[in-house]
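In the previous chapter we treated chains in isolation. Here, by contrast, the input contains two separate entities that must be folded as one system, with a combined length of 306 residues.
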Amino acid sequence: MDNNMLFREAEETDVDEVVKMLANDPLGKTRENYIHPLPDQYLKAFEAIRSDPNNELIVAVWENQIIGVLQITFTPYITHQGGWRATIEGVRTSEYVRGKGVGTNMITWAIERAKTRNCHLVQLTTDKTRKDALRFYEKLGFQATHEGLKLKL
Amino acid sequence: MDNNMLFREAEETDVDEVVKMLANDPLGKTRENYIHPLPDQYLKAFEAIRSDPNNELIVAVWENQIIGVLQITFTPYITHQGGWRATIEGVRTSEYVRGKGVGTNMITWAIERAKTRNCHLVQLTTDKTRKDALRFYEKLGFQATHEGLKLKL
């Protein structure tokens, strides 16, 4: 499977499949709205991401099917001697391919992408209720050195 | 003090003072490089932030002195029904004004700024060794629902 997986930036025609994947998730199902026609705000967000050189919505494709998605944001920070960071968010894999290493391939790909963008750090947060996710990222070398705080507006 | 505090985007002439503040911190002193002339990468990062409409380096000014700094990044996400988020990073206050509510004013200001940018969420991570910071953010309404993971490249 590894050899035939392809990563590319999402196109507008992929957004439906991406939202379907986001909604098919214990947390996602409570906050996404996968209906047809797809709510306009998804396409607006897609357009904002696509037009921003520091944001990339990446899909993993296998046999012409989208089997995974993640978003990478590249941010110039004044801290760490003006270092750029890559933030990974919204990582999901299709339920049909779970346990086949797709997530590992996706994060490994994202780390390499961060290197090509000269980032000194890759960061992400994961909901504390996702115990498997924490172990997954730690196995890939991430360290849970920080608390991730959120404030809903 | 509250009434006379002013918030504005940093200018190039502020960068020296900002880096001085970042370096005068238990964690910052191990990773910043506050020397003269200031390493070029700080100015490059400043320029990248200033030219990006989704990044703002904000300074708090009181009696013509910079007494605080933080960076806000606005990110369009496909998750949460295509919602924008504000990420706060690199929050520091001058040692001369600690305990005077400057940090609270800064975060409160940043939350309002996030609202004007139509964000549905404000997020940040804080190093687990900064116990006071966690309590500070929780008092302001943030919830530590996530693990914050980092991978150095």
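Chain B has a mean pLDDT of 95. Helices of chain B lie at 15-23, 28-31, 40-50, 79-82, 102-116, 131-139. Compare these points with the single-chain example from earlier in the chapter.
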